[in-house]
Structure formats: C-alpha cells, structure tokens
C-alpha cells in the first residue's frame, strides 16, 4: 500500500484540533508536521532551536498558506524551560500532545535535579509535562502520543541506579529512559478520560542514528538509508497514534519485526507485572519530587 492510500484509509481531518509536538524540527518531527498540516491541524512546535523552528514554519507555510502555527522554546534538559513551556501550553489549550523529541548518544551530565540528562530528556521531563497537562486533556477529550523505542528491550529496571547514571553504553541509558516513559504511562491513562497511544518508528535515518564517530558514520549512512525506512514512512506509526489508542501494554509500530512496514498494533511482553508496577510507583514519586521544587 502506498503512503497516500494509507493516509486516505487511516486518517481524517484535524481541523479545529490543536496539536503540540516536541522535536518538530528533527527528521521524524518534520514529516509529522507535514502530515498534520495537510490534515488541517493547528500546530504548536516545541523545540530548543528557534532558527530551525522559524525555517520549518516558513517551509510549512509555503505548502499550507492558511496553516495556523506557533512556536515555543523547549529545552528538555532544563526544568525551568519545561515548566515555562507547560504553562504556555495551558494558556494555548491543546487537544493532542505528541512527545517525539529524543536524545541518544550525547555528552552526559547531571541536571539541576540531580538526574542523568539522557534520563531527564527522554523520560523525566516529558513525563512531568504529560502529568501536568492531563487534566486539561481530559476536559478537552484529548490524547497523548508518546514515542517509545525498541531500545527499551535492552534495559530492565535497576532500583539502585534508576536513571542509569552509572552505565556508559548509550543503548542501555536511552533504552532505560524509554522503558520508564512507556511503562509509566499505561497505568496513568487506565481510568482517564484522555486517550493514550504509545508508538515507535522502528529504525530510521534521523539525527539520533547519526551518533557514530564520523569515519564510521560516513561508511554506514548510505547503507542505512537504503536498508531502513525513510522518516516519511516511519512517521506513519506516530501519526497513527493521533487516531488510534493503545490499550494497556500494546503499542503501534512497523508491522515486520518492528523495523519495516506500515503501522500495526502489537502486544508488549518486555516487562512483567512487578517491574511495570515499580516503574509506575517510581515515576509517581519522581513527579511529586519535581512538583515540590516548583
């Protein structure tokens, strides 16, 4: 099935709906914004780079002159920026929050709250935003679309090193943060009037995959572009989450081995009930700690 045929069958108009998206200027984010703009959504772009934001707005406006779009600066490593952006989203009033931004192999440091920055960017601060926005989304009949990752398979809960600050392997640290994000959200939405969709794009060629040393990356980037799905197709799994919810411990991703193909909902079997419960309890405690700092 072509992308256009898939869109015709699985999407509908988003006119009158306001969609906020983190990481909108990255490879997946740009494609998502194009799809959402074509469907008539009002967009709120959350990124830390205002120059890239302005360029994307200009690009989108060329294709969709009547598009309503605004930008907010959001640095997911900085709690003050996170709080400020969250309050701005309340003032705007949104119907859908897509958490798409992510950081994989980046220089490691501790945030002001004392947590590993990769853990904060990929889980802790997005979870804070979602928890704060939830009452508004419930009142508006809205939803959260959270982008998980197959990298969550590489990690499991370690209560002696919750944020994996003692680990060095990027795949483990990133996977742990995504594991927390995914498994903390299901119980949060179990009895909520807002909807949840946990999604993943499989493996695609974006800034996150460009983390290898330059000589290595020069050798592998072209084969990667050939082997793995392009962002335009990979973004369909995330877009599907705007229209389809995921029941407890299911997610939406590529249909073949979680890497290729059109979106399909599948069951997650990567954590048992005890680990899922502990992740939810720890996430709740971390949220309370962050709230007490405000």
Describe this structure in words.
This protein is an alpha/beta fold and 294 residues long. The chain has one domain: NAD(P)-binding Rossmann-like Domain (Rossmann fold). It has 9 helices and 8 strands. The chain has helices spanning 3-10, 27-38, 50-63, 79-92, 117-139, 170-188, 214-227, 231-243, 273-293; strands at residues 18-22, 42-47, 69-73, 96-99, 143-147, 195-199, 250-256, 260-267.
Q: What structural keywords apply?
A:
294 residues, 8 strands, six-stranded parallel beta sheet, Rossmann fold, alpha/beta, two-stranded antiparallel sheet
Task: Summarize the SSE layout with pairings.
Elements lengths: L2 H8 L7 E5 L4 H12 L3 E6 L2 H14 L5 E5 L5 H14 L3 E4 L17 H23 L3 E5 L22 H19 L6 E5 L14 H14 L3 H13 L6 E7 L3 E8 L5 H21 L1
Parallel strand pairs: 1-2, 1-4, 2-3, 4-5, 5-6
Antiparallel strand pairs: 7-8
Structural class: alpha/beta
Shape estimate: globular
Report the β-strand fraction as a percent range.
15-25%
The poorly predicted ranges are none
